[in-house]
Predict the structure of Phospholipid/cholesterol/gamma-HCH transport system ATP-binding protein.
Amino acid sequence: MDRAETIIDHKNAVISIRGLKKSFEKNEVLRGIDLDLYPGENLVVLGRSGTGKSVLIKIISGLLKPDAGEVKVFGKELTHIREKEMQELRIRMGFSFQNSALYDSMTVRKNLEFPLVRNKKGLSRKEINSAVEDVLDAVGLLQAINQMPSELSGGQRKRIGIARTLILNPEVMLYDEPTAGLDPITSIEINSLINEVQQKYKTSSIIITHDLTCAKMTGNRITMLLDGKFEREGTFDEVFDTDDERVKPFYDYNFIK
Ligand SMILES: Nc1ncnc2c1ncn2[C@@H]1O[C@H](COP(=O)(O)OP(=O)(O)OP(=O)(O)O)[C@@H](O)[C@H]1O
């Protein structure tokens, strides 16, 4: 599915970051990041390996503390937030991990029930079944409900991972390398699914990738992490309309120029 054209409401960012810095000893990874995620948009964060994309996601999800700067999620500043409040915010954010993070010893149904039962108390068996079936239908894998993760392909596991995240109805989706390790056709299917999720669930998403096809297909807006800062931002064509030697090889490699 093509990405939705989004009319961006620039007043009410769901995630807002200013002057974010993070180092590990002498390794200055994030050197002053500003970022806004607006309601309903797919924002792609592009960057080479090791540029700090995962560190950024971990800071947004409260798993790492910034050294400096402001990080607001749903209007709440994370720096001094209590763990209980952070947990409440985390439920409103869905993480789609690179490795899909499925439990290998549980069926697909049990994998999907697990986050639901843990985070939403008092649901009836009927409500649980219907939530599981709805998300599986949304990712096109209702038929896999009784299968084990080991019986699924990489692309199917990725879909189940996304379903597992969607079951809590997140307002924000954080996709970490959604097409990593997938063949080009399966990658395109996952990109389409990301666009379907955006439209069906009205999520605002950050998509972390170095796959330019993914960026082009899913991103309403793209920003590029270069030397610890976001230096290029705009549509796909705007970001790559440059002679910057840090950016050009990226494009040339992906599109074999
Ligand atoms: N907990 C940590 N302790 C020390 N260094 C870390 C830690 N987490 C990340 N780093 C360092 O921060 C830098 C950025 O790592 P990060 O995982 O964010 O990269 P990335 O852009 O997500 O790369 P990739 O695309 O390969 O996943 C790396 O140099 C990494 O070694």
Summary: The chain has two domains: 9-92+171-257, 99-169. The CA atoms of residues 44 and 215 lie 6 Å apart. The first helix runs from residue 53 to 60. The mean pLDDT is 90.
